[in-house]
Amino acid sequence: MQKTIIAAKWIDGFWDRWIVHGVEKDDISSIRSFLVDKESWVETWGALARSWAERAVSLPAAEAETAWRKASLYYHLAQWIIPERNEEKKEWLLKSLQAARIADELSPLETHYVQLDVEGKTCFGRVRLPVKAKGAVIIINPLDSTKEELFTYEDDFLQNGFVTVSFDGPGQGETYVHSGLKGAAGRWEQFIHLLIDWTSSHFSLPICVFGTSSGASWAIYSSGHPKVRKVAAVSPAFESKEIQLPAYFVERVQFVSEEKGSVWLPQLERTTFRHPVLLVHGKRDTMVPSEHIYRLYDRLPVGKQLLEFDDEGHCCNYKLHYIRGYAASWFQE
After folding, report:
1. Distance of alpha carbon 131 from alpha carbon 286, whole angstroms
2. Domains identified in the chain and CATH numbers
3. What angle do CA 228, 225, 178 make, to 5 degrees?
4. Burial 110-143 (b: 16+ CB within 10 A, else e)
5. Considering only CA atoms, which of 17, 327, 15 is closest in space to residue 150?
6. Is 160 helix (H, G, I), strand (E, B) or coil?
């Protein structure tokens, strides 16, 4: 936990993910120097979340929806720092879920809360419906993220006419906290196949998959499923001796892993790919070297595309809005 706080306090790039997912830069600047331990982190982000919730009450519906989503994101940040599955984490996660549901109620688009069983335990998901659906996009969240964090992903695909399907998988968010289901590579393989089959059984639409970082790795793995049409993968993570994952990330993942010492990524070198993949890479990515991306790209099937950005790092954070729009168009080709 302390490694995470040190990274947050001193490494500017730590915040890129949160900024592009909706956290205000001014909010980060106002509290960053006060983040010294778990208590200060939780109290500070909790207070900012309450501020956004209070602000939402007097706003028109569209603006109130945005404010509630920010409140949900900030409550998510409060629980995110707590790696253990305990009552404190559960309480903050519940506040995040409640704020997200209020935002959903204010939205003109329909939202359904759904469940999927993996090894007898419940995985929790959300499905949002556009006015007129052209297809369905399964959003695979990075390992230390939750479905509520990536609402901007949902918004972009919804605006392009896609149903969005987003679940907390094993070791993530609501699934980990409420069901106690931890992450493991084999369990995630089951989850991915069950999730695609679930989506296929509920929607008679072309199914595409989108993921970033570790979520991108599992998105590429899903390209081997016969019911998937296309996949877009941004900065897929690899488990390799040549690649050093951030220390704070490795430390955090151990709490939610069934097998210690593993970050439960798919073995892509052993995976058979079936359907086209849009592979996205930032050339300043210090976690995933370009040569790994190029070797993977060479193995992908016909119909593949490589989209690169000279000035972006891991996850191409500041190009994500453009990438999601590009992927939505490519999915429809």
Report:
1. 40
2. 1-108 (1.20.1440), 109-333 (3.40.50.1820)
3. 90
4. ebeeeebebeeebbbbbbbbbeeeebbbbbbbbb
5. 17
6. coil
SS3 159: helix
User: How is residue 58 annotated by DSSP?
Assistant: T
Distance CA 53, CA 38 (A): 22
Whole-number pLDDT of residue 269: 85
Averaged pLDDT in 10-residue chunks for the chain of 333 residues: 76 91 95 90 96 97 98 97 94 98 98 97 98 97 93 98 98 96 94 98 98 96 97 89 67 79 79 96 92 95 97 96 98 96
Q: What is the pLDDT of residue 14?
A: 87
Chain centroid to CA 304 = 23
Q: Tokens 């599955």 appear where?
A: 85
Please spell the DSSP secondary structure of 163-197, one letter per residue.
EEEEE--TTSHHIIIII---B-HHHHHHHHHHHHH
Q: Quick one: pLDDT at residue 276? A: 98
Q: Cα(84)–Cα(59) distance, rounded to whole angstroms?
A: 36
Exposed e or buried b for every residue in 305-319, given b needs 16+ CB within 10 A?
bebebeebbbbbbeb
pLDDT at residue 240, as a whole number: 66
Using an 8 Å Cβ cutoff, are 68 and 103 in contact?
yes
Q: What is the DSSP string of 111-148?
A: EEEEEEEETTEEEEEEEEE-SS-SEEEEEEPPTT--TT
- CB half-sphere exposure, 261, CA atoms < 13 A: 1
Query: Rounded to whole angstroms, how far apart are CA atoms 237 and 222?
Result: 15
Which residues, 6 or more positions from 296, have their beta carbon under 8 angstroms from its beta carbon?
220, 236, 268, 279
